[in-house]
Amino acid sequence: MNFLLETLQVIVMSIYYNMEAFVRLFIPPKNKNVTGEIVLITGAGSGIGRLMAEKFAPLGVSLVLWDINQEGVKETSRLVKEKGVTKVHYYLCDCSDKAEVYRVADQVKREVGDVSILINNAGIVTGRKFMDAPDSLIEKTFEVNTMAHFWTYKAFLPAMAANNHGHLVSIASSAGLIGVNGLADYCASKFAAIGFAESVALELLATGKDGVKTTIVCPYFINTGMFDGCNTKWPLLLPILDPDYVANKIIEAILTDQVYLLLPKTMYLIIGLKNIMPVKLGILLGMYLGAFNFMDAFKGRVKKVE
Hints:
By secondary structure, the chain is of the alpha/beta class. The protein has helices spanning 3-24, 47-56, 70-82, 98-111, 135-163, 184-206, 243-255, 266-274, 279-289; strands at residues 38-41, 62-67, 88-92, 117-120, 166-171, 212-219, 260-263. It has nine helices and seven strands.
């Protein structure tokens, strides 16, 4: 195909995709049927992980729950059974340990089957200034928030690719799109997780595996205890998010194959402005929004798996 034809194709398809996006503002896409899918959620013992498990419960899926906290994941299993799930399996798994991820993944494949919806939700935060954070906690942050995604993808993506069917979900953070004072290691780990998820998504498209969908979730602070004490200067613009609301939006995004989900919606504007405004103006806006002081009163649960 020559230059003129390729350029014409890009112009025509650009118009079409923009019109499609505009129509979807008023006519949302239909939810896909996930009955019979095997859904694995890491960090399912509490917080958003538990809420997502509960919201998947009535959808006819088989649930596989992972967490480092045995009592927490056991309780989640009990709760989803109360909501009607008959096929639920829970496993103790430290997602920061590659060998353990592979071992438990093999156990899941033997006992349950091939996972078709993988939700990488487990995460930790140190909540300390860069120079105050122990090396061990910085390493643990990357092991859980970033590297665990590599190992779970390695374990479960081959079957999805072979069937050209599945869904990869990365619960990242708005802190993976814009730096936050006091969250250097957390931001870096989430930036990496987003870059990894985007790159794998492109690999799948390049190899014709368009049946394997991807969703990247970037919420602002969620009121789960992980970021207790964090404040927001303008709650109407950047509210501390309700966990139930976030879980609902994530399930909705998965069911409609939404590629990116930013919460709250003002994050779309903030990220867009970050990419076009002068650096000094961006810093001024960050100060106005209170971004330099989000973590001043942090008292969240360090090393808490979300």
